[in-house]
Amino acid sequence: MKSSSTLPKHLYLIRTPASQNLHKPSRETMGSKGYNLHRMTQAGLNVPVALVIGTHYTHAPQDCFLPVFSVGLHALEESTGLLFGDERNPLILSVRSGAPVSMPGMLETLLNIGLNDHTLPGLVRQTGNPRMAWDAYRRLVASYGEVVEGLPAALFEAEIDRLTQGQDERLLDFSQLRQLTRSFLALYETHAGRPFPQDAREQLSGAIEAVFASWNADKAVEYRRINQIDHDMGTAVILQRMVFGNTGGHSGAGVGFTRDPSTGENRLWVDFLANAQGEDVVSGRRNAHGHATLAAVAPDAWQQLQASAQALEQHFKDMQDFEFTVQDGVLHMLQTRDGKRTPLAAVRIALDLLEEELIDSAEALVRTQAIQEDELGTVRMVAGDDPDNAPAPLALANPACSGVVSGAIALDAQAVERLVQRGVPAILVRQDAETSDIAAMQGAHGLLTQRGARTSHAAVVARQMGKTCLVGCTALHINEAARTLQIGSETLNESDLITLDGNDGAIYAGQATSALVPDTALRARLEGLRSQHPAKKARHHK
To answer: Is residue 323 part of a domain?
Structure first.
């Protein structure tokens, strides 16, 4: 097997057991995702083999192709025993971004690269699962069309709706998925003006270029502006052996936090979707379920995940946001990063980690010094004079970030901007929780979506911004043409007032009264920490 030390200095091979002899591995050169994959192998976690193309190539992606195709791809093949583009034993890859600073959902990802008419029979032969192979192929055609060719996602979503007639697409059999794939291939050729690429290397080149190009996408530039991130640092690109969560009843994909990112409570916070791929969860276009579904579908993987979450915290010394896939009952860890959290959660997590002796008091102080004590509480609805006549909620959704917020309905970024200019709080209401809405989320006070998981990238960003966020409201239906929405039996117009209760997931018509309920115990714990460091406390209050 070829040693990773033979790779050029801007390529890095990640594999379990722990990768050795990497050339100066760091977040700056490998990106945060690639560097953390390396650290996950050091922690003994089950990580699929990956090749990291360093941030060095961001501004000249073409320069990476010679070393990737002449050396890097061969190292991947030797590590997996598979051959990229081979008709009998194909290596199928994901192509992911990985900037040195976490930018959830702002950069692109492509899955199932290397699948085509020639390699699909080989994947069927490997797995014995024609349904999965055709499902992966149709996903590739749609995502490649969207990310590489710039085709609208709605083009492919409409074809799914036409075929399924309201049926869950995960219930389609292999012949229906084969039909859907062929429809996608025809749509791609018609709207892109050329056939879908059947050469695996052409696919890979296009995917790598698209992921590097996403560094300069509008939403990525806006995210960096909001968060004051250096525009010149660039992103890495990670080629990783695909593991398939869409192989059937004992498989799936998920995202989790090692602790509750809203409250900081020490409990696993997991979204999981059975018989699915990871983009289904993080894209914001699909609803997901909690850990109980994972425990029922793959109990051994659930046990492994709990142990892996503990290992992550022991290794990284902080609450982690991780992605995983379960293929035929086996857990594979795909990435981890320090989790975005509310100020309340940040303080509780830091103080709990201090008590657990994972960090010292100086580090706990650093992690909490920017947080004011009056932020340590939860905004809750205030009951009126007659609690028995309290308003009934219009519907319920999944709370992704706690708090209570009232505002006027806005169906797009332009509507948010108009309300902001008038000084009116806005609630952004969308079908999907998508990161392309980042500018609108920045201006809005809350986010409500018809679809999407609590751990979707857009929900993660909303939580980071401190926006009350409810996702996956199945009772919500939006009529963009009429600029109205229906929630349960109630029809509302754009600019009507609604209230989101992020504590219990309830949605109300009109404006509610709310108040901050302080967490006095947590405030006392924080004050106790700061009293140990009076000089730093003084700088904090300066």
So the answer is: no
Alpha helix (H) residue ranges in 129-266: 130-147, 153-164, 174-192, 200-213, 218-227
Contact 501, 508 (CB under 8 A): yes
pLDDT, average across residues 157-162: 91
Domain containing 372 equals 343-376+519-541
Q: Residues 14, 110: one domain?
A: yes
Q: Higher pLDDT residue, 171 or 508?
A: 508
- Residue 265 in any domain: the answer is no
The DSSP symbol for 473 reads -
Instruction: Give the pLDDT mean for 498-516.
Output: 93
**Do 236 and 105 fall into the same domain?**
yes
Query: Is it the case that residue 279 has pLDDT exceeding 90?
Result: no
Determine whether 518 is exposed, middle or buried from the number of CB atoms within 10 Å of its CB (0-12, 13-18, 19+): middle
399-413, 451-465, 478-492: lowest mean pLDDT where? 451-465
Domain assignment present for residue 490? The answer is yes
Distance CA 392, CA 404 (A): 15
Q: Which of 243, 262, 280 corresponds to the end of one domain?
A: 243
Q: Are residues 489 and 420 in the same domain?
A: yes
103-155: per-residue pLDDT in tens?
Answer: 888 899 999 999 999 999 999 999 999 999 999 999 999 999 999 999 999 99
Write the CA distances from 245 to 47, 115, 216, integer angstroms: 14, 16, 30
What would you measure as the largest C-alpha separation in the chain, in angstroms? 74
DSSP β-bridge partners for residue 95? 110, 239
Quote the CA–CA distance of 124 and 146 in Å, as a whole number. Answer: 26
**Placement of tokens 């014995």 in the chain:** 128
pTM score, two decimals?
A: 0.88
Task: Give the number of domains in the chain.
Answer: 3
Q: How far apart are CA 59 and CA 212, in angstroms?
A: 8
Exposure string of 292-311, with b = 16+ CB inside 10 Å and e = fewer, is ebbbebbeebbebbbebbeb
What span, in angstroms and rounded, lies between the C-alpha atoms of 447 and 450? 10
Q: Domain containing 467 — which CATH number? A: 3.50.30.10
Question: 242 with 278: CB under 8 angstroms?
Answer: no
Do both 491 and 458 map to the same domain?
A: yes
pLDDT digits (tens, 9 = 90+) for 200-252: 999 999 999 999 999 999 999 998 998 899 999 999 999 999 999 999 889 99
Percent of the chain with pLDDT over 70: 94
